């Protein structure tokens, strides 16, 4: 079920004109990574379901300073493909793109970009190329859960019977519809995980 590594993390840096010479790594607090049972916001309690993807919110520069992504952050698509659905999620909208897994040889796979503000011309059937900007991060600061703006990224294998019309979040959790994969196995780095006691995580 493995995918060949792609350049998504590097493209995210390039798309937002983050200085490559000063960028050190993406940073993930507990709760931001795939399959985590915990929240990284609010009371830091249990999620209703294990995390379906990975949350890009923080990065560190070479001086050790931490930076946060915001609603101006541009989101590139990780590989060429076709938009299959755009639907409302808990904090904005999500875009599903289907890609042919030519190198992996196991059929197609999906990349799902959630909590976003999609490009106005983006709709099902739109063809995209690797690196195309498909959305910006949604402004979530006024949400009821008081969560920072971030990009939720999920990757999965679609069932042959998957119907994209009326797609909604819970379909992603149904293994008969989508087999979720660990995103960090498919995308490039560098990145590092922080402990719960880290001051940057405690301040979220």
Looking at this structure, what is the CATH superfamily?
Glucose Permease (Domain IIA)
The Rg value, from CA coordinates, equals 16 Å
Assess the beta-strand content as a share of residues: 25-35%
- Terminal Cα span: 34 Å
Put simply, the count of helices is 3
Q: What is the structural class? A: mainly beta
The CATH architecture is Distorted Sandwich
Mean pLDDT: 93
DSSP E strands, number: 13
Q: What CATH first level would be assigned?
A: Mainly Beta
Please tell me the total number of domains.
Answer: 1
Work out the helicity level.
Answer: under 10%
Q: How would you describe what is shown here?
A:
The chain has 204 residues and is mostly beta strands. The chain contains three helices and 13 strands, in the order H-E-E-E-E-E-E-E-E-E-E-E-H-E-E-H.
Features:
single chain, mainly beta, Glucose Permease (Domain IIA), nine-stranded antiparallel beta sheet, four-stranded mixed beta sheet, 13 strands
What topology does this entry show?
Elements: H1 8-15, E1 23-28, E2 54-56, E3 58-61, E4 66-68, E5 74-76, E6 81-88, E7 93-100, E8 108-118, E9 127-128, E10 133-137, E11 151-158, H2 169-172, E12 178-181, E13 191-193, H3 199-202
Parallel strand pairs: 1-13
Antiparallel strand pairs: 1-3, 2-11, 3-4, 5-10, 6-7, 6-9, 7-8, 8-10, 8-11, 11-12
What's a quick, concise take on this entry?
The chain is mainly beta and 204 residues long. Helices cover 8% and strands 33% of the residues.
């Amino acid at each position: 079920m493995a995918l060949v590594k792609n350049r998504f993390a590097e493209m995210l840096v390039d798309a937002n004109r983050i200085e490559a010479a000063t960028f050190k790594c993406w940073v993930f607090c507990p709760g931001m990574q795939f399959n985590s049972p915990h929240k990284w916001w609010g009371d830091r309690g249990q999620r209703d379901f294990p995390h379906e993807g990975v949350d890009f919110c923080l990065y560190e520069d070479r001086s050790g300073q931490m930076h946060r992504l915001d609603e101006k952050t541009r989101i590139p698509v990780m590989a060429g493909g076709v938009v299959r659905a755009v639907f409302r999620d808990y904090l904005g909208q999500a875009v599903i793109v289907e890609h042919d897994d030519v190198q992996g040889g196991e059929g197609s796979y999906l990349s799902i970009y959630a909590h976003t503000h999609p490009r106005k011309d983006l709709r099902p059937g739109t063809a995209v190329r690797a690196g195309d900007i498909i959305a910006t991060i949604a402004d979530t600061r006024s949400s009821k859960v008081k969560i920072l703006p971030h990009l939720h990224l999920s990757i999965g294998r679609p069932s042959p019977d998957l119907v994209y019309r009326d797609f909604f979040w819970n379909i992603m959790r149904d293994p008969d519809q989508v087999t979720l994969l660990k995103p960090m196995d498919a995308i490039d780095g560098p990145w590092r995980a922080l402990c719960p006691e880290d001051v940057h995580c405690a301040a979220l």
